[in-house]
Amino acid sequence: MESEVKQALETLERATANCTKGDRHIVVLDRGWIFAGNMTQDEHGVYTLTNCVNVRKWSQGGFGALAISASKAGATLDDCAPIRFRADAMIFAVPIPENWNG
């Protein structure tokens, strides 16, 4: 039994080794706005993106390619001030690595 648990934990570690960690996300909002930044949520359910950019366009690959790397997707990014939005304005969010736009 102990070896099965150890094996299961090793499998879990391997499976999550490449998962993105941290609070950096691409956020798709209502009306087609796409931003990337460090996302937090306050006690009232309002989200804030700091250290953020507006994803104006990308030229290579679909959204999946953009989620992997902004530069490889040929993305045009515009710096922006921190933004705040309610949960009902968010379509979805995708975690991204810290070096996503590098």
Question: How is this structure best described in words?
Answer:
By secondary structure, the chain is an alpha+beta fold. It has one domain: SH3 type barrels (Roll), CATH 2.30.30.100. 21% of the residues lie in helices and 40% in strands. Strands 1, 2, 3, 4, 5 and 6 form a 6-stranded antiparallel beta sheet that branches. The radius of gyration is 17 Å and the shape is extended.
The CATH class:
Mainly Beta
Helical content (DSSP H or I, runs of 4+): 10-25%
Continuous helix count: 2
> How much of the residues is beta strand, in percent?
35-45%
At the fold tier of CATH, the topology name is SH3 type barrels
Largest pleated sheet: 6 strands, antiparallel
Structural class: alpha+beta
Cα separation of the termini: 45 Å
Poorly predicted segments: none
Report the count of strand segments. 6
Concise overview:
This protein is about 20% helix and about 40% strand.
Topology (SSEs and partners):
Elements: H1 2-16, E1 24-29, E2 34-41, E3 46-57, H2 63-68, E4 76-80, E5 83-86, E6 90-95
Antiparallel strand pairs: 1-2, 1-6, 2-3, 3-4, 3-5
Keywords, please?
single chain; about 100 residues; alpha+beta; SH3 type barrels; 6-stranded antiparallel beta sheet; about 20% helix; extended
